[in-house]
Design goal:
Layout: E1 2-6, H1 10-21, E2 25-29, H2 33-42, E3 44-45, E4 49-53, E5 59-61, H3 64-69, E6 73-76, H4 83-91, E7 101-104, H5 117-124, E8 133-137, H6 142-145, E9 151-156, H7 160-170, E10 175-180, H8 183-206, H9 210-230, H10 241-252, H11 257-266, H12 271-278, H13 283-298, H14 303-313, H15 318-326, H16 335-338
Parallel strand pairs: 1-2, 1-6, 2-5, 6-7, 7-8, 9-10
Antiparallel strand pairs: 3-4, 8-9
Bound molecules: nicotinamide-adenine-dinucleotide and SN-glycerol-3-phosphate.
Domain Glycerol-3-phosphate dehydrogenase NAD-dependent N-terminal: 3-162
Family: Belongs to the NAD-dependent glycerol-3-phosphate dehydrogenase family.
Subcellular location: Cytoplasm
Length: 343
């Protein structure tokens, strides 16, 4: 299968390398010609994925039409805020008979519309492409995938054949792909865990310990599942790779940009300073704003997300945010379940 990878950041590059190694004919598109020149010169994406060689057969271009010209699968690897403008441009070159798979790999929610990214993509494409959209998510840092470190992810699509086509495309000895029909849950798990990763980073930056991190991750997963279920996700999905799996990797890995940004904020840096230092996209920041509004609109309780919002956008002291979480009113651990039973 011929593949166009759209974007040339860390994740797009790691996936383009993986697909090339899988024997696919891959063209990777970057919006800046200068980045293409750099990658052509060094056969390495030094800015976003240093230390990983670009296979000689991987083609590179800043010409979007050329990238899509003979592709059958399109893999979108741009940040969430760029998904709509990118798919709008891509749409102009898509042909229903030729382009059989549209894979989104970004993790986020659209500001303003509150849409999941597969919904954003669907809204910009003719109906004939609806069943070709797949979401690839799960615990997968580019730095490790680029080095062929064993990784397992999940491909979610409304149609089973579509998810299986993505599974066939990406599957390799070091990259195991499961399928899942729950697009809503897989997308929300991938997007919302970034907020919790910022929080565990803040906790680490404040000098708190593993107990605090475990509490944030566990209660974070509870509020992810609460919002997800209210939006139609299957609760069990949050126990899978796109849920707890991605939460674990992002909250504990040194590769995580969200966690690293959180550490800097916990150490006293302003949000803008932290983002400038990380340089790469920190999706949890925008997602926090969107998720907080969604939760408020739906009447869903997300106390950790609320405190993250206060710290990121309202100038709250992170230490006081943790104190407010610790001193909330008493509650059951499984309140949604327990309150509906005799106990
Ligand atoms: N890095 C990972 O390990 C990883 C793993 C899984 C998923 N993701 C997701 O993939 C998405 C991309 O993340 P990343 O890590 O590759 O980011 P990155 O910061 O490494 O790279 C972002 C790339 O997008 C480009 N870009 C920025 N604005 C753009 C625009 N308006 N149009 C087109 N291109 C634009 C940048 O020039 C850069 O090349 C995110 O949603 C992230 O959550 C990342
Ligand atoms: O580096 P992060 O925090 O953006 O996380 C990247 C991926 O989502 C991990 O699966």
């Amino acid at each position: 299968m011929r593949v166009a990878v759209i974007g040339a950041g860390s994740w797009a590059t790691a996936l383009a390398v993986l697909l090339s190694r899988n024997g696919k004919e891959v063209t990777m598109w970057a919006r800046r010609q200068q980045q293409i020149e750099e990658m052509l010169e060094y056969r390495e994406n030094r800015s976003y994925l240093p230390g990983v060689s670009l296979p000689p057969q991987l083609r590179l271009t800043a010409d979007l039409e050329l990238a899509l010209a003979d592709a059958e699968a399109v893999v979108l690897g741009v940040p969430s805020h760029a998904v709509r403008e990118t798919i709008k441009r891509v749409a102009g070159f898509l042909k229903p008979q030729q382009h059989r798979l549209i894979v989104n790999t970004a993790k986020g929610l659209e500001e303003g519309s509150f849409l999941r990214l597969s919904q954003v993509i669907a809204s910009e494409l003719p109906d004939v492409f609806r069943d070709k959209i797949v979401v690839l998510s799960g615990p997968s840092h580019a730095e490790e995938v680029g080095r062929e470190i064993p990784t397992a992810v999940v491909a979610a699509a409304a149609k089973r054949e579509t998810a299986e086509a993505a599974q066939d495309l990406f599957m390799s000895p070091a990259f195991r792909v499961y399928t899942n029909p729950d697009v809503v849950g897989v997308e929300l798990g991938g997007a919302l865990k970034n907020i919790i990763a910022l929080c565990t980073g803040i906790s680490d930056g404040l000098g708190f310990g593993d107990n605090t991190k475990a509490a944030l991750m566990t209660r974070g997963l509870a509020e992810i599942a609460r919002l997800g279920s209210s939006l139609g996700a299957q609760p069990l999905t949050f126990a899978g790779l796109a849920g707890v799996g991605d939460l674990i990797v992002t909250c504990t890995s040194l590769h995580s940009r969200n966690r690293r940004a959180g550490i800097l904020i916990g150490q006293g840096k302003k949000l803008e300073e932290a983002l400038a230092e990380i340089k790469m996209v920190v999706e949890g920041v925008r997602t926090c704003k969107v998720a907080r509004s969604l939760a408020q609109n739906l009447g869903v309780s997300m106390p950790i997300t609320e405190q993250a919002y206060q710290v990121l956008f309202a100038g709250a002291d992170p230490r006081e945010g943790v104190a407010r979480l610790m001193q909330r009113g008493k509650t059951h651990e499984m309140e949604e379940v327990v309150l509906n039973q005799h106990w």
